[in-house]
Amino acid sequence: MKITSIFALALCVTICLPGFAAKKKKEIVVHNDSGEMHLRIDNGGYQHEVMINGATQSFPLSSGTSGGNLAFGSGLTVINFSAGYNYDLPSFPMLQIGAFPSISYISSVGSATMFSFLVGPTFNVSLNGNIEDAFFGTAAMGISSIPGSTGFSFRFDAGKRFRIFDHLSYQPSFGVVKISGMSAMFVFNLLGGSVHF
Q1: Dist CA 145 CA 38 (whole Å)
Q2: Maximum CA pair distance of the chain?
Q3: pLDDT tens digits, residue range 153-188?
């Protein structure tokens, strides 16, 4: 119950803490012989991003029982809900820092509910300077907990945002998760979305 309360608090803080902010344009000014040239890099004018992922399919990198808790082999089913918040660092266009809480139901030889809270940077690459259409890579670390066990976690994700309309992007991704004492897993997230403000 204590872990559930901590997770619920972390999720609320992650989603509710940032208020909606006005668009803030960022410029890098480049001087040349003919005067001043302004190169505008504004991330689409957004400083905040909230992400919601409704489902994740995971596949083990190696089968077998790891850590004495879960059997990461054939028959593994993962139902996942995760959220996240990214803040655009004003001094570094297209670089964000974020927090990513999640809850997963894992069904294998023995089923379990896992809570995770990770933090880390997201690097964005965009051809048009708009983060709503950017390719991205995230490296995050933190803790994951299942009944009777808490472990250090690493996660690496890569994906692409597709702008649907202002403030909203479809955000599929692919990644690798490693939790201490457990097998590493491929993670496919095809139901991700993000809201920018």
Answers
A1: 49
A2: 71
A3: 999 999 999 999 999 999 999 888 888 877 787 788
3-state secondary structure of 132: helix
* Number of residues that make up the chain: 197
How far is CA 23 from each of CA 11, 74, 105, rounded to the nearest angstrom?
Answer: 25, 48, 38
pTM of the model: 0.71
**C-alpha to C-alpha distance for 114 and 120, rounded to whole angstroms:** 20
Q: Which residue has the tokens 């000014």?
A: 29
Calculate the alpha carbon distances from 58 to 42, 108, 119, 194 in Å.
Answer: 35, 12, 20, 21
Phi, psi of 170 (to 5 degrees): -85, 135
Q: Is 144 exposed, middle or buried (0-12, 13-18, 19+ CB in 10 A)?
A: buried
Q: Kindly give the pairing relationship between strand 70-71 and strand 65-66.
A: antiparallel
Sheet strands side by side (includes 48-53): 57-60, 185-189, 173-179, 149-160, 135-146, 112-125, 95-107, 77-88, 48-53, 192-196, 168-170, 162-165
**Closest residue by Cα to residue 99 from 119, 127, 76:** 119
